Amino acid sequence: MPKSNFVKLSNKFRGKTVTVKSVDFHNPDVLHKLQNIGIVEGSRVHVLDYDKNKKFIHLQINGVEYVLREEDCDHISVQ
Questions:
Q1: pLDDT per residue over 39-75, tens digit each?
Q2: Which backbone phi and psi does 11 adopt, to 5 degrees?
Q3: Residues 22, 78: contact at Cβ < 8 Å?
Q4: What is the pTM for the complete model shown?
Q5: Is 42 exposed, middle or buried (0-12, 13-18, 19+ CB in 10 A)?
């Protein structure tokens, strides 16, 4: 099986646009909320900024800005 070159969505992508490859949440409520804002497999996400104190990652999806907790981004794989 080939190695995956997907990594978790993180602040290291600040200023870059990435493609979501997978969203792995066992909580259906969180998964539904992410789907509603456009975080689904294949979507393009621009990482705007990172709040180090609050551990929030600021994203832009389809022209709209959102904020996610860093711990939630651990379940989102991108390329």
A1: 999 999 999 999 999 999 999 999 999 999 999 999 9
A2: -65, -15
A3: no
A4: 0.86
A5: exposed
